[in-house]
Amino acid sequence: MSSLRLYNTMSRRAEEFAPAGDEVKMYVCGITPYDHSHIGHAMSYIIFDVLRRYLEFRGFKVRHVQNYTDIDDRIIMRANALGRPFDEVAEEYIQEYAEEMRELNITPATIYPRATHEMPTIIEMVQALVEKGYAYRTEEGDVYFRVRKDPAYGKLSGREVDSLMVGARVEPGERKQDPADFALWKAAKPGEPAWDSPWGPGRPGWHIECSAMSYRYLGATLDIHGGGQDLIFPHHENEIAQSEAYTGVKPFVRYWLHNGWLTLDEEKMSKSLGNIITIREALDKYGADAIRIFVLTAHYRAPLTYAEESLEGGKRAAERLRLAATLGGGEGPPADIDPEASRRRFVEAMDDDLNTAGALATLFDLAREVNRARDEGRATEPAQATLRQLAGVLGLTLREPGTDEGAGRFIDLLAELRNELRSRKIFDVADSIRSRLEELGVSLEDTPDGTRWRRRG
Description:
The protein is α/β, with parallel strands linked by helices. It has helices at 39-57, 73-82, 86-103, 119-131, 161-164, 206-218, 232-247, 279-286, 288-296, 308-326, 339-351, 356-375, 381-393, 403-423, 427-439, and strands spanning 5-8, 13-16, 23-28, 61-66, 135-137, 143-145, 182-187, 202-204, 222-228, 253-259, 262-264, 267-268, 304-305, 442-447, 450-455. The strands form five sheets. The protein has a four-stranded parallel β-sheet with strand order 4-3-9-10, with helices on both faces. A four-stranded antiparallel β-sheet has the order 5-6-7-8. The protein has a three-stranded mixed β-sheet with strand order 12-11-13, with helices on one face.
């Protein structure tokens, strides 16, 4: 069997993968829950789900940590705009995201730490960095990391500290010693959530949260750290600097993996730009397998352009695989199909830096062989079992469309009907709709943005 090779952003080349210990320690940057997640998020988490599934298929044990950045400027702004507590807003979007990941057939991480639950570790790390001279406190109670204290700063992104000075500016209220320095701790502002610390009440900077969570749950050195290419600088660059300064251990990460962007109208899909297609919209319209096939037909490091035609094509492709994998074969002699040859081609593709497009092509070739043999009246189950197994490595469910695909739109209609009944003061029927949905495992939540629903369990 060939060796798995993965492209390491740090070395800028494909390297043979081998974990440092008995299990693969993998950390993937998670969402900031201040709005609905979009299919750009789905793209990233599908890719790292497939990586994990393939590692486990190859016999590796994986400890997978994925965080929630549940305290952030954007969450606070959203909560203030809604007149609600920040943690309530974050929790709502976390639960929504978790349900969408379940429907996308994403393997749950080993643990999902939240920044707000990790304050002791965060504060301990910041304090140690101050004591070591890598960080300093300002009179206002902010704490910054001294970027120039790290001579290797910029090694992931290829940027030099002096180049960062071009166009750099210090925001009003900041008291940095150097414009390149970044915040480890932010002093409390009126009306914002805050935690006690040696520097006064405040909250952590974004970058230190991930370093604290990865250190607590995976240790000083990770095998794999994943995320989108937009996180290379400054987020992952800053993680390296502060983590290696804190532990004194290098490298912080042995293999850096970054997925490409999902674009819409030639722009990166992002909440801040407002050009998003939500995961819920895509799930209800196309289904999980279609979204996965859409994502996996491109290489994970390449940009992917959102197009309805591509997702419709993914839906048709998913149905072809489902029928090939599940329809009964003939009662004649066994088909002349070599499932092991398909397995070898699949592994060769995936070992080549997760060439999922090549792996999918192998599945469709096998599906054609199965269909041809079935047409000839031959028995096809051994080949179908291989098709189902390899599809599972890519996270494809091969489930018959029906319940899950149409359910979302049907529940939306019931929620609209309930609201219409309430507006007409027909509360008994409106309450009955809510109660019946509860019995079916669907919770309705009335928010200032309208009624939302989520599945339980």
